[in-house]
């Protein structure tokens, strides 16, 4: 992962605290149901916020704690990874995922529409999914920030906010242009001004990467190598 800015401070977290920012993710096309079951077990053990899996794996069996609530939430994706799906298809996919137990949906925008400056179309696409999965479902909008200019990032974040999204998210992790950068996260955070969450995802493989994203304003992290990232922090928060 490359970043455009050098963070000046770290968020003071221990491994337990950092885990609560994490969507523990498995979206590889070759993933099996056994892989997903292992992901859930690892997510529970690590104390992450959620697991994020492809919609065809839903519903998941999530352990329930002593208080009767699930040990973690379930997130999924729609229009993934290209975003080149009709809005009604994305909406239907999202609605089916929520019916199958997803509490959060990460949708991919039509990146080409953003590159063409058709931000109204981007907003309409997001609004269609939002209408299909209203609150309390959490809607995150994957903007593929590495493929966009700063101006395009700002416009897409504004469109996501106007369409009722809850988060903007940097990346699918599948685009050849790359994943999350500190610069993009900082710009996205500044644009949404705390009114939306910011999820950094794609290429975050070390503790230093994760802390840099949080420093830049990320409020959620999409990680596939969560164990290795958390291992960089001791229970006392040393890093």
TrEMBL record:
Q: Which EC class is the enzyme in?
A: lyase
Which superkingdom heads the taxonomic lineage of this protein's source? Bacteria
GO terms for molecular function, please? deoxyribose-phosphate aldolase activity
Pathway the protein contributes to: Carbohydrate degradation; 2-deoxy-D-ribose 1-phosphate degradation; D-glyceraldehyde 3-phosphate and acetaldehyde from 2-deoxy-alpha-D-ribose 1-phosphate: step 2/2
Q: Where is it mostly found?
A: cytoplasm
Q: Which reaction does it catalyse?
A: 2-deoxy-D-ribose 5-phosphate = D-glyceraldehyde 3-phosphate + acetaldehyde
Q: Where in the cell is it found?
A: Cytoplasm
- Database matches in Pfam families: DeoC
The record's keywords, sorted A to Z, are: Cytoplasm, Lyase, Schiff base
Q: What is its EC number?
A: 4.1.2.4
Q: Give the active-site positions.
A: 106 (proton donor/acceptor), 169 (schiff-base intermediate with acetaldehyde), 199 (proton donor/acceptor)
Q: Which PANTHER family match?
A: DEOXYRIBOSE-PHOSPHATE ALDOLASE
User: Which family does the similarity line name?
Assistant: Belongs to the DeoC/FbaB aldolase family. DeoC type 1 subfamily.
Extract the NCBIfam families matched here: deoC
Q: What does this protein do?
A: Catalyzes a reversible aldol reaction between acetaldehyde and D-glyceraldehyde 3-phosphate to generate 2-deoxy-D-ribose 5-phosphate.
Protein known as: Deoxyribose-phosphate aldolase
Tell me the organism: Cellulomonas wangsupingiae
Give the gene symbol: deoC
